[in-house]
Amino acid sequence: MSYSALEQHFEQLHHLQHLGAICGWDQATMMPAGGNEARAEALGTLAVLCHQQLQDERLSDWFGEAKSEALSAGQQQSLAEMERSWRDATLLPQDLVRARSLAGSRCEHAWRSLRPANDWAGFLPLFEEVVALSREAAGARADALGLSRYDSLLELYEPGMRSQTLDALFNDLNQWLPGLITQVQEKQRNESVLQPAGPFATEQQKALGLEVMAKLGFDFNRGRLDVSVHPFCGGVSDDVRLTTRYDENDAAQALMGIIHETGHARYEQSLPAQWRKLPVGQARSMGVHESQSLFFEMQLGRHPAFLRQLSPLLNQHLGEQAAFAPDNLARLYTRVQPGFIRVDADEVTYPAHVMLRYQIERDLIEGNLEPRHVPERWDQLMQQYLGLSTKGDYKNGCLQDIHWTDGSFGYFPSYTLGAIYAAQLAEDMQQQLGRFEQLLSGDLAPVFNWLQQHIWQHASLLSTEELLQQASGQSLSSAPFRRHLEQRYLG
Amino acid sequence: MSYSALEQHFEQLHHLQHLGAICGWDQATMMPAGGNEARAEALGTLAVLCHQQLQDERLSDWFGEAKSEALSAGQQQSLAEMERSWRDATLLPQDLVRARSLAGSRCEHAWRSLRPANDWAGFLPLFEEVVALSREAAGARADALGLSRYDSLLELYEPGMRSQTLDALFNDLNQWLPGLITQVQEKQRNESVLQPAGPFATEQQKALGLEVMAKLGFDFNRGRLDVSVHPFCGGVSDDVRLTTRYDENDAAQALMGIIHETGHARYEQSLPAQWRKLPVGQARSMGVHESQSLFFEMQLGRHPAFLRQLSPLLNQHLGEQAAFAPDNLARLYTRVQPGFIRVDADEVTYPAHVMLRYQIERDLIEGNLEPRHVPERWDQLMQQYLGLSTKGDYKNGCLQDIHWTDGSFGYFPSYTLGAIYAAQLAEDMQQQLGRFEQLLSGDLAPVFNWLQQHIWQHASLLSTEELLQQASGQSLSSAPFRRHLEQRYLG
């Protein structure tokens, strides 16, 4: 049976990806510096091998035949997801894949020193190469998929999402978000917030983090917590490797980082065992993944009811102080301050950073903006959204992110889609289970059971739109996100 | 050029083995229990892939053609080592490989519970299957290589070694070792040895271990120290993963374990960079590998001059006590006591454990002994060599080792060959550089430079016999080992 042959083939691919995930985690957490060259070569060989696995000549026939085989609904969706992986891996000509990979590596590598040097002129030619090749790739994908160029890239990170939808969503946000930011700043102007006084020893922060992860249902029998420069959630479903970094002077933010990554981790750990080794058993999309981390961090983690549970743990692990009182924690964790850097942004200003990037990358890929004009456009949009100028400051402007350096255009919207999905889910959940004020003040099992039932267990068996529909009967909408922000920040 | 094609092919294999080595290390040190099933599957897929890499149909032609290409001496040896890997992987029919692997897994798995239960009767049928298949494999290898059955297995672990040589070596040992053991026990009877009084916190033991590793030249930029149930030295040359285990009541033995593994590690870290990704760039053999760990542990680590350097470090990290005085350490680390368990044996009685196993496994494979008679033979040889009876005590007798459960016949001699090589090297080194009493009392760089020059840098470019010859002008001989034991234990 061709469907079975496909399953076996993709399970083997999954095993190879498992080795890559663990060795990648090791590279970021455990590996001594001198091991890097050999590791990079080994992982490079593995990447080629995985690609070859997807280019096997038998696949085309198997897909053709499997479609006429008697398959369950789950198998049909599994077949579709296998075909999507195959199509994404084989759609572009090999020369273009190689050229993109090369240009991306070169640009990313140079960026690591050009950014601190604020050297836009040095970056531009490398970036132009990346953009040119990304346009070419987008063009090839667009032709094959019958989508616009930019949508064909978006499809890689959030299948089914279109720029038309994003335009509508972001136009709406643009109507009310800048005003909201001003209002919140006005309201918070006279608020007094105590900053926790460090230093906080790494070991104590780690003990606190582990206890909070346990409270959030992380399964330590199938995962662990370690340290890396850039926190991430890696590994495989049965062995989730979550990382964080500790700042001895800022335990509060590190803790929120752990809560964020635990959201990713619980999604991974709760994917359905039956499909775990197949594409259909993987997380739905980048946006849905981010919705789980942001549900944990923003909806749950910064909610006053949860902070009342967190407060005694902070006192216990880090030493008692007034800054850890629930009311102060609530103020501390909801401070709004427009800034230059996306990764440091608060919940309210974050979407502005994403909208700006979306507009620029969409226009770059569609050919409506040239790379050399990016800084000007960046400055203009930063002024419009956050009232900040980045003129001449490339380092804290358009050179701040890694995403574009290797051509990952289409990724940025996932962050704000995640925030919007999370707000929708939180609203739906509260309608069904009761208000967070109650729900988050005791045992959190009902919250996780709800997510398990509506999101986690479905992996990629449903589309993102179907996930939202069956959780709430509602389509994608920014209204719950707006209500959430207004209630939390102006209520 | 076919030789180049072979190099590329084997380098790719090396990269895959790299991923396996790191994921295997992770499995033993970092992985949560729940991740085991997925990991076993992933590593199983990798093993199949590595095997396929060696069964590539083009290899036969490439080997044929490469032999008539203009190659340097190093390339010729490299070609020979690639061919050896290829031959070892392809010599046996696939059905036999699979059957052995299956029977081995089954027997090893059962052994884990049968050993504690002292259940020889339960073990026997599984073991008979393993022996039968190992005989078949040995037969096929013997035919192809023109060797005796047992020698064809020996060739896997110590290329070039023959049972005729081992018989002579062990017959010689058998002449003087049992008497020596009795004499040493007699001499030590009235010796008073202080046992270090614990407990010793794991963190302190680790700090001590790290300092001793640094003193022994371990390169922490290309390796690290962690904890596993069964200590080993894994990873790859540029990223050596050394493990140990800590017993809070016995810091002294854990430290010797680290010194032992550091010997393996320095060999790995010092293999020639030029050949690192090819078979010829790997360690020469199991016996030569063990010679390095035993040189570090026995020749160097337990020498009074080195113990004088170790003493202040023990006092510093574990707290001062009389047991850490150099003289007491020297007595503590040279206690001789015949016992049932090989892995707990001291330097003097250890060869008896190996000789016994060698005689049994050689006869098993050659068809001169049947599995059901192993316990009887074991008991008889234990009485002969160490004056101990294992009648009815299978757990501490023939069921104690993992090696035979998966059919690794031919491995055991490596341990004693390593001890004999190490003694030869130590004698040669002292003839060239001066006595250990001086050499080991200061900076150890000359010792390591000598090993680098005579052993490490040659990887598999020379045979074991050539390594010994060029280090000393001497062939394999047990005389230095005897002189070493007599001097240290009776001198």
Short summary:
2 copies of one chain form a homodimer. Chain A is mainly α. Chain A has helices spanning 2-29, 36-54, 58-66, 73-90, 94-114, 120-145, 149-157, 163-188, 202-215, 251-269, 286-301, 304-318, 326-332, 350-366, 374-386, 413-433, 436-439, 445-454, 464-472, 479-490, and strands at residues 223-227, 233-236, 239-244.
Number of helices of chain A: 20
**How is the largest sheet of chain A built, in terms of strand order?**
1-3-2
Low-confidence parts of chain A: none
CATH C-level class of the largest domain in chain A is: Mainly Alpha
How confident is the prediction overall: mean pLDDT of chain A?
96
Q: Give the topology string of chain A: H per helix, E per strand.
A: HHHHHHHHHEEEHHHHHHHHHHH
Structurally, the number of domains of chain A stands at 2
Number of strands of chain A: 3
What distance lies between the first and last C-alpha atoms of chain A, to the nearest angstrom?
Answer: 59 Å
**Quaternary state, please?**
homodimer
- Beta-strand proportion of chain A: under 5%
What is the CATH architecture descriptor of the largest domain in chain A?
Answer: Orthogonal Bundle
